[in-house]
Amino acid sequence: MYEKTIILIVLSHVLAFACMGQSSNERILKELDEVIGKKKEHCEERERTIAQLKQRLANEYDNAQRYTICSELFTQYLHYQADSALHYVDEMERYVGSEKPQRAEADVIINRADAMGVMGAYNEALQTLEQIDRNLVTPDVRLKYYYAMRTYYGWMADYTIILSEKEKYIRKTACYRDSVLMLVPEGPGRSISLAEKMLIESQFDAAIPVLNKTLSAPMSMQEKAYVNYTLASVYEAKGDVEMQIYYLAQTAIIDLTMAVREYASLQRLAWVLYRQGDIERAYRYLRCSMEDAVACNARLRFLEVTEVFPIVNDAYSDSVANERRMMNIFFFTLAVIAVLLVIVALRLYSWNKKLSLMRVNLSAANEELKTVNEKLAQTGKIKEVYIANYLDRCVSYLDKLEQYRRSLEKLAMASRIDDLFKAIRSDQFLRDERKDFYMEFDKSFLELFPNFIDDFNALLTDDGKIYPKKGELLSTELRIFALIRLGVTDTARIAHFLGYSLATVYNYRSRIRNKVKFNKETFEQDVMKL
What we know:
- The protein is mostly helical.
- About 80% of the residues lie in helices and about 0% in strands.
- Helix 6 (about 100-120) runs antiparallel to helix 7 (about 120-130).
């Protein structure tokens, strides 16, 4: 808020002395001015989308869906509020499921690096990306990795002021761009990368038709912004300022309409307009860019704006006739820069402390994740065994029902009415089926937990130990606690499963609890851990 106040004060002085630069792009610049005036509305629309996603996340219990929603929230926040984007990367990591875990883990790593890059933590971003072994991932993940590495070295090239280092990062950017071109399919993404390559190789006239053709094809708004921004870079290299302004304005309109806060188009446009003499617009655009960079915590964009801002301020200061006011503005500007530097230093210090704490928390979270993965693996095995047995049992039961129906049909066709009624009234069929069902349940359970009986008896006193009788796999008591081990703890469900009354099951559970060797209160929880 303090920075915004400073900019508004300086802007009020600039408006008194600024001269308006007119160009053939006045219409597109006025359209951009209107979009900037509605920036709050566009941000509110994005906030509503984010709020809806958060509500869906709060009401969702499936981890796979939670992962997807967190991924959508990350996308919404990445160029809008980088701190929150990083938070939802951590949330994605919590919900990485058993289906395609390697792909999900790679997405988490790349997303984390993207968020760190936006926040200016470039070393951390590279260290994060180096966790990925590109030889072990699928081509689509490898393509995403190449995009991330190209972006990273592009950041470093923009950020570095040492010429030799900048050239090194530009070469690496070109190298990863070539890797992208080897994998990216036909479409806007390929056209943009190809045009960037042509731009680096000074093939300006070849790049323009590629990008113009791409603009006429269906694409997302984000892709359209990239195409326009690349066209602006090509025309800048050609020295065509009017076309450069036009495509930078088009890019800025798309960025602000989508409520993107991390962008380069508007500050670049402000600098071009400043050189064209449109000081008033340059100031407004820089103010908008600075506000968005601070709100997004986009360090590189913030530094880009603060690089340009003193130059524009100097132009304003030179136009002031009063020497006293000019000196006041000079010292005032120095004070603003000092305050901004202190704020940046404090934020960096605070971020380093948070990062250290994050590493500690991440280590603890990894240990918890290992435990959860082990439990998930066991749960998956239980599901596989019981689903297979359930299907086999269903098929077998259907076959027996068909045989039973045919036997009744034969009795009816033979007019053996007495035998027919006798067969219908008999419950022997049901008793046999229930007995077979329990035998199958016991066999399946002991396949999964072969040491269950011994482990269960270890929780009981010597005179309270329970063993199945001859011809049994599990006794009634053992079968009740086998169901509890599988997570069926409700007495009504257990009674329904075993064909007993609620009172009978309750009495069994109470009787066994009285024979517990250690803590009776946690006995059933201990059984579930066997």
